[in-house]
Write a structure and sequence with these properties.
The protein is of the alpha/beta class and 229 residues long. It contains eight helices and twelve strands. It comes from Pseudoalteromonas aurantia 208.
């Protein structure tokens, strides 16, 4: 049973979530962004359900605030009527672990919660670092280090690099990456390509190389420049 904060200004939606999840988890409810930040600062949560269109402080700003504090270990599932590709990518860029477009079924919400909590459990029980040659991925603070330089990763970028490092030097199929990141619930816009592009740009700027190689028609692999043929 997990401690969950639900941040939702629609009373009917909050009531439905409460009725569906109250026998599975311990729930707190915040109805605006300021209240959410107060709850987060004074309580410990295993997961946060977060609407975006909130009074006082927007949900994305709440998520960005968390990114500097607890988001490396506390998953955030965004629940929002904003369902364009731009909105979804903004949610993931702010540090969210998952994005659920309204309207959604409560059973699907429960399934997303289960997946996120399982990832937290797996991360906490696994080795805190993944090393490959001179590359180190720190699973505690979601940083990547190479040649005495490091960079802070967002959640999706961290999960993607973690998967590719664990499978290196093999290629990871695109379908497998989708299932790993979104549990077969990939948004219709298919944001993987955009995430890979942004991650490559970040790594190129920081380290001088992209590390992620596209295998056309198959997927992606982790590869150092000096490993390329």
């Amino acid at each position: 049973m997990a401690n969950i904060l639900c941040v939702e200004d629609d009373i009917d939606i909050s009531r439905g979530i409460a009725e569906f999840l109250e026998h599975q988890h311990v729930l707190d409810f915040a109805y605006n962004g300021k209240q959410a930040l107060t709850f987060i600062a004074t309580n410990s949560y295993d997961l946060i359900l977060l609407d975006l269109n909130l009074p006082f402080v927007d949900g994305l700003d709440v998520c960005r605030t968390l990114l500097t504090t607890q988001l490396t270990s506390v998953p955030v599932v965004i629940m929002s009527a904003r369902n364009t590709e731009k909105d979804i990518l903004a949610g993931f860029d702010s540090g969210a672990w998952d994005y659920l477009a309204k309207p959604f079924s409560l059973a699907e919400l429960s399934a997303r919660i289960t997946v996120c909590l399982a990832k937290v459990s797996n991360n906490s029980s696994s080795k805190n670092e993944i090393n490959l040659n001179d590359v180190t991925l720190n699973c505690d603070d979601m940083t990547m280090s190479f040649n005495n330089t490091s960079t802070q990763l967002h959640r999706v970028g961290f999960e993607l690099l973690k998967l590719l490092l664990q499978k290196a030097p093999n290629t990871v199929k695109t379908e497998h990456i989708h299932r790993f990141l979104w549990n077969e619930d990939t948004p219709d816009s298919d944001p993987l390509r955009a995430h890979v592009y942004k991650l490559r740009k970040q790594l190129k700027t920081t380290f001088g190389q992209e590390f992620i190689t596209t295998i056309r028609g198959v997927g992606y692999k982790f590869q150092l420049d000096d490993q390329e043929k």
